[in-house]
Amino acid sequence: MEKKVRITATERMWVVARKMTTFTIRDIQQIAEVPYGTAHYFLTILRMTGYLKKEARKGGPALAKWQLIKDTGPQAPRVTTIYLVKDLNTGEEFEARFGKGQEVQARTKNE
Amino acid sequence: MKNLFVQVRNVKQYVNVAASLEGRNAGVPGIALAHGAKGLGKTRTALWHAAKNGAVYIRAKSKWSDSWMCSEIATEIGLSFGARPTFKALFEGIVGSLKERSRLIIVDEINIPPTSCLHTIRDIHDLSDNPFLLIGHEGVLQRLKPIGPLFDRLLYIQEFKPFSYEDLKDFAGQILDIPATDDAVAKVLKLTQGSVRKSIVLLKGAEDRAKAGRAATIGPEHLPRE
């Protein structure tokens, strides 16, 4: 048996989302052992990008039922944060990506 | 009520079984069975463990063919084949991959797939030496016993048991915001017969009532009548 690699929170949440037919944010929080905010952010981003659907329930967002509708495989999608900076003086646009290690990589959008 | 995954006795035993399977000596069979009644947290435990340790989790289907099962395993271990691969290609691909990188494969709902799939699991295990943890509900032992070659390879058989008084007290102590009295724990146990799912529902309701009444502890009066 090879040495175990560290499993990230995103990978744990992706496993749970793929394998449970329907789930709540609290299921993800509990089984993947992540804070509520992390689970909520992950599910919201995946919903916005068409991976998940959400069925609202009375009693607040914690009780809403979620379901994976685009299962593309075992590798967890990586969620990155991209900010767009537009310089109105020069007309240039820059993308700032906050990824692994929180480094900022600015580059012109059309590069 | 805190939203925690509590490692009760069943979970600790499951973790030990999985660790023993992965760390077993050469030549020792590497298939185990975890079984128990519905509502005792088997699937939740398996998912929690798989997500935490990078194990492969698949749920058996009643209409599984050998090829369908193998294509699911192949997908989960990161293998891709062209359109409509043969069973031979799938099988050999899986065995080859698992020989290179062994990883625990958890198959849930093992009661329901056709017997041929169980033989294929045994074949994959025998040829790759990869560990398998099968999960089933009531009746799975009777289902597997006649399949001698598979049943003989079961290194561990773990039964998920209902909560005992100590389990429930430990569980309640970890998830409740307000402590429950011993009498309340005993009453929950009596009302639920140790069902994990039912115990959570009762404890949640009792805690809500205790909070509404500004009580310092959860007592039997916060639970439904017997």
How would you describe the overall organization of this protein?
The complex is a heterodimer of chains A (111) and B (226). Chain A contains 3 helices and 5 strands. Chain A has 111 residues and is of the alpha+beta class. Chain A has a 3-stranded antiparallel beta sheet with strand order 3-4-5, with no helix packed on it. A two-stranded antiparallel ribbon of chain A has the order 1-2. In chain A, a hairpin with a 6-residue loop joins strand 3 (81-86) and strand 4. In chain B, strand 3, helix 5 (115-128) and strand 4 form a beta-alpha-beta unit. Chain B is α/β, with parallel strands linked by helices. Chain B contains 10 helices and 5 strands; from the N terminus they run αβαβααβαβααβααα. A 5-stranded parallel beta sheet of chain B has the order 2-3-4-1-5, sandwiched between helices. Chains A and B meet through helix 1 and helix 2 of A and helix 2 and strand 2 of B.
Q: Write down the secondary-structure element order of chain A.
A: HHHEEEEE
Helix percentage range of chain B = 40-55%
Mean of the pLDDT scores of chain B? Answer: 93
How many domain regions of chain B?
A: 2
CATH class of the largest domain in chain A: Mainly Alpha
Which percent range describes the beta-strand content of chain B? 5-15%
Secondary structure tally, helices of chain A: 3
Question: What is the CATH topology of the largest domain in chain A?
Answer: Arc Repressor Mutant, subunit A
CATH topology type of the largest domain in chain B: Rossmann fold
Number of DSSP strand runs of chain A? 5
The largest β sheet of chain A comes out as: 3 strands, antiparallel
What is the helix tally of chain B?
10
CATH architecture of the largest domain in chain A: Orthogonal Bundle
As a percent range, the share of helical residues of chain A equals: 25-40%
Average pLDDT level of chain A: 83
Tertiary shape of chain B = elongated
Quick one: which chains have the greatest interface? A-B, 22 and 24 residues
